[in-house]
Design brief:
This protein has 15 helices and no strands. It is mainly α.
Length: 384
Amino acid sequence: TQLVFILTTIISRPLGGIIFGYISDLKGRKLSLEKSILMSGLCTGMIGLIPSYKDIGFVATLFLILLRFLQGISLGGEQGTSISFLIEHSSPKSRGFLSSFCCVGQQAGILLAILAAAIYNWHIKKSGTEEVWWRILFIFSFFIGLFGYWVRKKTNETIDFLLDRHCSDKTISLLEESKLFIFKNKQLFLSVFFIVSFGTFMTYTVFVVGNSHLKQLADSLQIFAYIQYLMSLLVIFSIPVFGYFSDIIGRKTIISHSLAAISALSIPFFQSLQSVANYNTLVVAVLLAISCGAFFSVTPTIVAESFPTRSRCINYAVFYAVPAAIMSAISPFLSALLISINPTYIAYVIILLAIAAIFCLKSFDEPTEVYRKLNKYSYEFLKP
């Protein structure tokens, strides 16, 4: 069953990115974001209303798989559209900083989910009642979805999208233009593939595998019982900082230095999983979390900036979501194999992917070059 859920997520997220990316490029970022959050809230809330396996048997499992699949489609449509919405609403001088809050929201959501699960597990151990409370957590998503829909309904469509829709060549269909862009930019696709593969594998091995092993060191150093929360908080607070500096020194500078830092820290980090806990391990974990925050802050932005406005969201889904889904399927099995041999081997894979990603950075332009080449209209031209 767990394997089915993993496959459901891997298939549904890139599919959702393509579906909602097409809607976003055709009808607008605002409409796509409204529909995706409503769908997400509805599907998540309905999971809390599914009758138990005792009541309806295997049908409950089928309902759960279906809702998880639809939930994955809605979530898959979020990132590409939301990052496009933010960069198109921002001044070129603050685009990196403002768009980084998309990643802040993602990381904060993960941290809140971890905290909710921890509180729920604590309550179960204390009261012994399990049937009702997990349902309440899911049903609450109805209200979160409605609130998110209300917030997005109050926003305006991006000026970049409105201008591009008015001025773009209507003789070529959106799908045809996207297909032409993909075939003409195979090197860019390969570059995004390696960068996304690095990010996906690094995220799983550091924040899932690494944290689970570090928590086992809490017997010798108590702070490791909370290492997951500490690293998540450091990532959240470092993302906007590096997003701000990316507007000053460039996206590629931030990415290249973060790749180098993560590579250098990954060997002592994974070596520490086999040793006794000490403060050196804590320092490495802290520095690694900050370096990951730097990488997360810029990567979605520089990828989205590489695409023309008219087909930005659907191209983002193909270039970004598809490689992420492929690596999400590979990472658990590859990391389990490497841990069974030697955890340090994970660091070697991270380093190899980082080297490939650094060489691929030449395919990306800095923001000023991107907007000169791909967009005829920008925020600056609209100032009075």
